Amino acid sequence: MINTAYNRQFNNAAKYRNRLVFEELGQAQDDEGNWIDSWLESELGTTNAQIRTIRGNEYIMAGANQVKVSARINMRYRKDVEDKYYELGEKLRLVLKQPNRPTRIFEIEYMNNLEEKNIELELIVNEVR
Question: Which of 25, 79, 104, 109 has the most other CB atoms within 10 Å of its CB?
């Protein structure tokens, strides 16, 4: 018997309303021809996801106030994303660009294949503002 409530929960397209871009840390040349570390758009492209804030912390670092926000991002399962995360680790991040709003950058702390059912990925991320 199929659990229809479970399937409705994960197949509801409306909950994945945020369009996120994957970026990975790579090498790029600057105007002078020097190779520098730079965030480049990943071959993973974009994904639709749900962003839910968990908690926020404010701290003072070198005289500047910073806010660290932890969030939970849920997206449909993608094997390529799971494989790339285990390959790159902290060299992979997500970026949310919205018109008339500042760009938000999420550093991935942990990835979880919910219930190992290959239906949804849950990412625990930090956003430093």
Answer: 104
